[in-house]
Design goal:
Blueprint (H helix, E strand, L loop, with lengths): L1 H9 L3 H11 L1 H5 L1 H11 L8 E3 L2 E3 L3 E3 L10 H5 L5 E7 L12 E4 L4 E4 L8 H11 L7 E5 L10 H15 L5 E5 L14 H18 L5 E5 L5 H14 L3 E4 L13 H7 L3 E4 L3 H15 L4 E5 L5 H10 L3 E4 L1 H6 L3 H16 L4 H6 L8
Parallel strand pairs: 3-4, 3-13, 4-7, 7-8, 8-9, 9-10, 10-12, 12-13
Antiparallel strand pairs: 1-2, 5-6, 6-11
Length: about 375
Amino acid sequence: MYSLLRPFLFSMGPARAHSAAMLALGPVEHLSPFRAVFRAAYAHTDPRLEVRKMGLVFPSPLGLAGGFDKNADRARAMATLGFGHVELGTVTAEAQAPNPLPNLFRLPADSALINRLGFPNEGAEHVAARIAVRKSAIPVPVGVSIGKSRSVPLEPMSGVVADYLKSFRAVRDVADFVVVNVSSPNTKDLRAIQAADTARTLFQSLLEERDRAGTRVPLLVKIAPDLVDDAIDAICEVAKEVGLAGIVATNTTISRDGLATPQEEIERIGAGGLSGKPLFPRSLSVVKRVRTQVGPSMCVIGVGGIDGVETALAMLRAGADLVQVYTGFIYRGPSLPADIARGLLRRMESEGVSSLEGLVSGQRVATSS
């Protein structure tokens, strides 16, 4: 079905197509009978796919990445498609409009996107209020990504911390986990916060605020694929030292290496973060390194170029506990979560294992004769 619909959607500009898709999901979001129909048609659940991490139960390892539903407009609808979790946002303390148009571009030859949206959202408090009203009808863990408001300069750092704290206070009671986004290339100077000393200051402040509030909501950090290995190691060490629950690897990349899209088209598009299939090798490499650095207990979420069961399984075997999709979902359509779930179950059967953990680790169990 989506293969027939996609040419129509791709005949529109990317932003307009996204708006059309969100509009079409309106009845599913707001009417429980529609959600039941979609859940029956798309969601493919099986206890063998469950992941238990950060004190949460994820029905499957596949989640929706931050950035798709920035204002939590369609969280209930997205959960009906078989995602094991949804990450909403990124939200900022201040409501802000998108960066100037055009700010979103398709690269069909590469199954990729370039965006320079810049955290457009209605503001953390407004989005949190929406989540609070709808949370009981979202049957999977809900993550909320928080970022720096565009108007807040990097110096002094106290202003950045105060900005993140305002967002965190707004979302901490409606989120099952919170992702601290310090790695988007589309907010000026944001990636500088990934430096170890700066990151430590921010993370410690957020954790202290969490503890004062008497909540134990897990905090994770989302890192860039463009960090050099030493910088990855440094932020992993800080995350362990202060007690973050996990790392999301990775955000979009500023690299344009190895693309099939003509160079003149890439130059015409200009700046922005690249996501999709070309990002997969680097994201996979970062996930492997992160897992080596943080050990087995911390949660690692792999993001970047996942578009089917093979890429999802490769990311899980590289060390991710959970994986997320965004661009692959746009190119493959609403059946992608179910396709990946069924594919993982088929691989379990073909490899003679009885759990996702067994499939990921490559362990085999004896089959009855």
